[in-house]
Amino acid sequence: IAYAMLWRFLLLAGLQAAAAWVPSSSVAGRLAAGPNAMPRQMSIRSSGPLGPALRPHALQPCRRPARALGLSMGAVEDIANPESLEWLPPAQLSKDTEGSGGDVMTIPLFPLGGYVYLPHSEHTLSIFEPRYRALYNDILFSGSRRFAVCTVDPKTGSFSRYAAVLYLKELKEVSEKTNDAVKFVCDHEVIGRVRIDKILNPSSWMKADTYLKVEAKDVEDEEPDEAANRETEIKLEEEFCRLVDLQHELSEAVKFTKGSVSNFKTGPGEDLWATIRMWQNFQEQKLLSIQVTLQQDFQAKLIAYLTKSMGESKIPDVINISDLPPNLQAEVKNLQTRMAGDMAPIQEEYQRGMQLMMQSESHARRLDLLRGLIKTELGLLDVKKQIKSMFGGEGEDKVRKDEEGM
Fold first, then answer.
1. Range list of H helices, 154-269
2. Nearest to 186 by CA among 254, 242, 124
3. What pLDDT, on a 0 to 100 scale, did the predictor assign at position 341?
4. Which of 12, 115, 264, 352 gives 20 to 30 Å between its CA and that of 277?
């Protein structure tokens, strides 16, 4: 019970820190993705199986190991470069405009933080804001049952130019059960992607008087070069096998199972998108592991304080930060600041890779991006293996301490 309470407390502190760089105006519901996914508020994972922590230092210098090992830098540099993403002009600086008319697609827009909704995935949204209640009423009345979901740049508030198209599969009215705190619980499938040309009513974003509407075009893949793609697919499969073997050889805390090799599909369409989702889940687990690392020192201090002051059998289910002594309150604030500073850049780079997948207009481009992600991970593990072979376990611990002291 004590450890369960502790994780709830640490998780709250962690979510507050991570949410510091996500615009609060984009909160529209509590989300869940896929049969094996965990609940999240926007892009923030709130629960799940946690293994031993990873060193945060091992995840940050994505570019340096790749360069040192002479890896192909095209996709790696794109993923590391914030300028590689396409954003719309900030809504707060834009003016309302008339629609173009004719056959131009007009579709509702639902900005949802930093999480990237990938094609062929399924998601559940809980809807409580009045403007999004109106959105669902309208798409049901019109029969379209679809809307676009984009990410939000945490620094500028701009919306991503490329967005997922969600199709409403099922809607449940739950206002009576929730005392109108939540109006609908809705199940969706991502059925495609669009490229947004312009927002018709950007002023409504800040006023929150209604949902946004945009003009957009469907994203369609270029004609594939099947022979060239198949060669890349084979290389990608070989690199993933090597990655899984290396993760198990080094006893990585967050790793793919051996069985995941058979689920690693590289064919065009839904097969590759399923593999990209698998990689997205892997990245999120690594972020959780970093969070655990940052919490470990405080965890020990909090357990010692609670055990001494209350006794382990009397620890309550919930503890308010204000009830802690001043030194532990200061520790909580320091933890939140450090988590925001250490996790945000890594999370942004992970999400950038997924957003580049959404921008891609060919199967070949997605293969290239996924190879870049895997090669970067291989580079990090190769460096770790070299350190381990040079210094052994004790030497690796010493290197870790030296790095943490720098």
1. 203-207, 226-249
2. 124
3. 75
4. 12
Using only C-alpha atoms, the chain has a radius of gyration, in whole angstroms, of: 23
Q: From CA 249, how far away is CA 302, in angstroms rounded?
A: 34
Q: Which residues lie below 8 Å from residue 225, measured CB to CB, with a gap of 6+? A: 364
Q: Could you tell me which residues are beta bridge partners of residue 150?
A: 111
- Token code pair at residue 93: 């600086």
Distance CA 279, CA 374 (A): 9
Can you say whether the dihedral through the CA atoms of 53, 57, 61, 67 is positive or negative?
A: negative
Residue whose token pair is 């962690």 = 14
- Walk along the chain (406 residues) in steps of 10 and give the mean pLDDT of each run: 44 41 29 31 28 28 34 73 92 91 94 94 95 96 97 92 98 93 95 97 95 96 89 96 96 94 94 96 90 77 76 70 81 77 80 95 95 93 90 55 44
**Helix-helix angle 270-310:326-359, to 10 degrees:** 180
C-alpha span between 10 and 15 (Å, rounded): 9
- φ, ψ (nearest 5 deg) of residue 32: -150, 140
Helix (H) or strand (E) holding 327: helix 326-359
The CA distances from residue 241 to 68, 363, 380, in Å, are 22, 21, 16
User: What was the pLDDT predicted at 12?
Assistant: 45
d(CA 129, CA 64): 44
Classify burial at 392, counting beta carbons within 10 Å of its beta carbon; exposed 0-12, middle 13-18, buried 19 or more: exposed
Given the structure tokens 């409504």, which residue do they identify? 204
**pLDDT at position 73:** 57
> pLDDT at position 397, please?
54
Residue 146: per-residue pLDDT: 97
- Is 105:143 a contact under the CB 8 Å cutoff? no
Distance CA 246, CA 232 (A): 21
Tell me phi and psi for residue 234, to 5 degrees.
-65, -45
